[in-house]
Backbone:
């Protein structure tokens, strides 16, 4: 199997798909990371002057990735919302969408492909199987690089007068060596949605590209607590439910679908 894997691509190549949800696409410039493609625009001085932020629930139209159910699309959209809310809490005061804020964040999924459940299931079984092999050397178990999911998302931050102060078009695909396989059509899109939320939050926190950091960004104690499933720093983030925490971590290790461990939003599903 490893011989076959070596002949196949190691990651899904996610295209940058521009939608029509942003107020403007002017000024976007190519700004790629090592595993991420993006086009980015940010006015650093204006963004760094902001103190409060609210988040408009992410949209995920049913015409995108129609093989996913409404519930699965809502889970992905909520993963974006939650990741944005928790990560933005490190620098901003996060308020509910109905409360005016210095910045209003809006995002939309523009492209997504489902995960191949059969290939993911085989990868999970192979990964679990290696744990029973008597060896002193850990055995790396890459996923079968077939049917890896991908996602593209665009987002912007508007000031109080509705002027765009930051915008991004972002795309990433799952990777055979670093993406956790789970037996669900939505598993890769779900994991990548969280990565997007963290990346755009970094744009707003620093007023610059999230891919140009020279050091390691250690998570704050508040973010660690939220990841573990405890209450978020701001009540506004409770609308997106709490992280699955330990149950989600264990579920990921044994390949359970994220639908089984993530309760999602406390409100009605927001995906449209």
Residues:
């Amino acid at each position: 199997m490893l011989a076959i894997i070596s002949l196949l691509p190691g990651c899904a190549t996610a295209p940058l798909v521009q939608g029509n949800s942003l107020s403007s696409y002017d000024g976007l410039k190519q700004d790629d990371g090592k595993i991420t493609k993006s086009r980015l625009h940010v006015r650093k001085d204006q963004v760094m002057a902001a103190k409060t932020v609210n988040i408009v629930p992410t949209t995920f139209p049913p015409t995108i990735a129609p093989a996913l159910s409404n519930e699965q699309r809502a889970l992905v959209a909520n993963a974006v919302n939650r990741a944005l809310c928790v990560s933005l809490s490190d620098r901003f005061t996060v308020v509910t969408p109905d409360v005016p804020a210095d910045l209003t964040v809006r995002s939309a999924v523009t492209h997504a492909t489902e995960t191949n459940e059969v290939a993911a299931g085989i990868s999970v079984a192979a990964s679990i199987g290696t744990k029973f092999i008597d060896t002193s050397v850990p055995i790396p178990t890459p996923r079968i690089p077939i049917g890896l999911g991908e996602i593209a998302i665009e987002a912007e931050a508007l000031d109080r007068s509705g002027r765009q102060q930051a915008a991004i078009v972002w795309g990433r695909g799952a990777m055979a060596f670093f993406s956790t396989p789970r037996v669900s059509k939505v598993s890769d899109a779900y994991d990548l949605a969280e990565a997007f939320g963290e990346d755009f939050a970094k744009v707003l926190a620093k007023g610059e590209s999230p891919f140009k950091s020279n050091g390691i960004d250690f998570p704050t104690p508040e973010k660690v607590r939220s990841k573990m499933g405890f209450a978020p720093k701001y009540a506004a983030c409770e609308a997106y439910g709490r992280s699955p925490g330990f149950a989600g971590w264990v579920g990921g290790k044994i390949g359970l679908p994220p639908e089984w461990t993530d309760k999602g939003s406390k409100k009605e599903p927001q995906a449209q």
